[in-house]
Amino acid sequence: MCYMEIEDYDRCLNMFNLALNDIEETKFMPRLIIKYNIALSHENSDELETAEEEYNVLLKDTPCDSNSYLFQIENYQTSHGKNLEAAISDLLLKLTAACHRQLGWIEYRRTYKDEEKRDEHLKKAQDQLTHANVIDSRDGQNYYYLGRVYGEQDVTNGQVASVSTHEGTSRGRKFGIVPNFYSGIKVNLIRHIRNAHEAFVNYRHSIDKREQNADTWCSIGALYQKQNQPMDALQAFICAIELNPKLTSAWTDLGELYEKNEQFQDALDCFKNAMKHDPVCPEPLKARIQFLEKELSMPIPTRPANQAPPFEKNIPCLKEAYEQPIPLELRNRQDAAYMKQFLNFQEREYLYDHAFWNLWVEFRTMEEDQPEEVYWDTPEPRPMEDLEIQVLELLRANEPALVKAEREVLECLETSEAVFKRNICEYFISDATREMPRVTEIMIQNLRDHGHLLESPRCYPYDFLPRVAFQNLPESFSLLSELYVSLDISAQEIMQMVSKRAILNNTYQPIFDDYAKLPVPPKEPKKVIATEEDVKTALERNERHPLLLKTPVLTIDNRKEAGSLELQRYLDNCTVACIRGLTGCLRLDLSLFSTKAVMETDGNQEIEVRTQYHIPPETNCDHASQPTWKCISEPTYTTVAKYAQYQSESFKHTLRNEAEKIKKHGGAGGRGPSPKRMKMSKQSHAPTPPKELKSIKFGTNIDLSDDTKWGKQINELSKLPAFCRLIAGSNMLSHLGHQILGMNTVQLFMKVPGCRTLAHQDGNHMATVNINIGPGDCEWFAVPYDYWGKMERLCEKNGIDYLKGSFWPILDNLLEEGIPVHRFTQKAGDMVYVNGGSIHWVQATGWCNNISWNVAPMNNNQLTMSIFSYEYNKLRLFKSQVPMQLLCWQLAKNVKFTNQLIYNNCKGVLIRSLAFCKMVHDFCVGHKKVIKTHARSPGEQSHFCMTCEVEVFSILFIKDISGKFHVFCVYCAKSQGLDDFIALQQFPFNDLVSIYEGMKFIPAVINNNNKQNFTA
């Protein structure tokens, strides 16, 4: 419900589906209501066909149909052998009415997309909404929708009536057909009046039911405006704006009302307010604003002394409008509604229609309504023993040096102390933490002498700690969970240890922590790059801002330099670098990626196009030119050929404009910026966004993965050195075994000036390679990895989802927050190497194409960042692009490890993964679920859970849904019940054990040769 409120419908649907498929019922929300909310989420995300299907299925599931509600209820009670409670019966009635209401609203929305069948859709909408009213006449939203439908019919028929009237005055008398013609006018006028009356009646009913609704008041205002009642329309629009100051439709309609009454300054103010709040159709509004500003800026011609003003002000100005009362004919009804609600509240009959409120009331009354003779079972906490107090004090004294097992003992003792002192509620303390750890006098002496309970603190026996009953599966599975075993443990030992979890639970010793700590974004470095005093001094001296970091620009002169290990090591240690001359010395034919070559290869390939505004790169703005981080980038689709035509026409149009400027300035052209002024401009604040925003289109994510079509282009890139090559032994992504579009495949970007690649970290914090094909340049911004936690907090402050949102940071905001930024220009032929996890965003300053892909250098830093990102994405319900479990198994299979750190990291993942696979296997066996072997085919894509979108490795749970097979993880399958699932194992344990045992660490041999090996 929270995700629905903030309009994050992907996560909203994810949560609702989890709740719906769970085998356990919830008191918070019945399953039928969950299904309704799923349909509503699809509708709100503009998936009308899916929503309509869900509503119809839901109507079949409910035991009532609108035609004979009581009969259907009786029939349901008879067939199920039980009576429905009044509350459930009322809930089903409301649900059925709501489904018909939303089906009617869907038909109404289709009138805007299908003009040819407009009347048909309106008729269907009216039927569904009327149907809903018959079932439940208490729903104010339904009355509002009905009012909208009648209002639209009024528009259509009103237009017909007006045309007929106009023709009647000019043609009726001449041809002697006045009686019949005026009969037609009469019918249309009657229909016009009737529809307007019906619309108004429904709006009034809506106000009676739910008066605090801005949409209803806005629609009433629009209806008054059509009826030529400007004063009443003004009052209604003001009511709507007071209820919701961000309602763009109310501001727009009010602006049109002022414009119609020739009060143009008020109209302009209203249109500007509409632009501030993200209107649906901003372009017409912007055109209107520009026109009014232009006209109002012109001098007003003087009026002759003897001439009267052309018009008088018909309605109050915008400032005075807020003092106007609501329309007279609605005032009495409104007062009555308020009084009724007040009386209901006084009698405590006023109920909040909110699930969270109802849940709170249930918990509150659970305690208040407890009978006097019933007492809660609250045993008195036992006092702490002297031995416990002694151990607690010693552990606290040595706390910084404690190992995990000792910290758990300390936690147990501190919990006992808190319970005894009544500092926490004992209901929330598990039995395990109440049990005294098995501490001996010898251990206490060791604690005094050595600071540890045992001489060898890494060899604690597990019966030393309180007994814990382990479930068949851990509460969650994380690649970041702490290991309790040595990295030298064999695969057979892992299998034997895990087997005890299901069979002999009391002797099971855990391999990893069942309760992994949540991944937390990194805090910014303690070492400050520049203090406030440094920044102030630099600005006073007109020097470069200390937080604008210098970007390494590396010039490569020959092939030896291009393939050197020193270059790769340097790149691994910097945030971002621009490599100049590399494509030239390797003689890469970049013309293969030009617009002409791409169009000739496959001009009909579909590409994604983003519609954006052309804004200076240092800043960003909304439709109203107000600064914001949220970036407008609307997706559509076209073909390569059509975008190539747009790119060409854009270039020609700019050439013509430049030619006109040169001609206007007498052949000298406009004055360019001098070096001194360019230096000064770097220190000034970011330029303000232009008032007239120009729309541009960006051709993005053009897939070049098909070898049959793009073979020449892919082969040309094989000339690159190993550190940036698409396929190389030192690139971890090359070992994955299947394609991930845009990561281990090439993507092309086609740009005109101003096109933006928005701020982001690449998938699972992998490194990025980007080559500018030219002919124009690109401007880059990048922030070091250590600051992405602070960037995420700034995004939240600006109302943006860091992982899913579209945002463009304003440079001044970053500098004010102390975030260092790299800023540099990428010229044609330059390669940009973005190190793993760096946040970056790019804007084209000319017409150019770019190609890009990801690489994963074989170092521990990259693997650590990627695993962290993998787990953080799970926490944020965001699908990872790289399956890290599969990747680590593939590395163990293919790579000879010469780096101890990356070996340890990868080995730890394998231990956790193998142990968890064995747990899942034993879980299935315990539930008598047969696991079938289904070998993984070459190039097969990795599998992710349909519900929670986490990687599903080796053991898949398959379910047939509407004729299609979908993959689920063990947790989602468990919550739904295993009966409907087929369990498949892609990697037999013998294969996994073989890979695990074959993974060896080989110390690196010192080699003076710069040639790279297929090692890590």
Automatic annotation (TrEMBL):
SUPFAM superfamilies in UniProt: Clavaminate synthase-like, TPR-like
Subcellular locations according to the entry: Nucleus
Stretch list, region Disordered: 663-694
Molecular function GO labels: chromatin DNA binding; histone H3K27me2/H3K27me3 demethylase activity; metal ion binding; RNA polymerase II cis-regulatory region sequence-specific DNA binding
Gene3D superfamilies, per the entry: 1.20.58.1370, 2.10.110.20, Cupin, Tetratricopeptide repeat domain
Superkingdom field: Eukaryota
TPR repeats: 214-247, 248-281
UniProtKB keywords: Chromatin regulator, Dioxygenase, Iron, Metal-binding, Nucleus, Oxidoreductase, Phosphoprotein, TPR repeat, Zinc
Entry annotated with the keyword Glycoprotein: no
Cofactor(s), by name: Fe(2+)
JmjC domain segment(s): 709-872
Any one of the GO BP annotations: programmed cell death
A UniProt-annotated Pfam family: KDM6_C-hel
GO cellular component: a single term: MLL3/4 complex
Coiled-coil ranges per UniProt: none
Family, similarity comment: Belongs to the UTX family.
Name the record gives this protein: CRE-UTX-1 protein
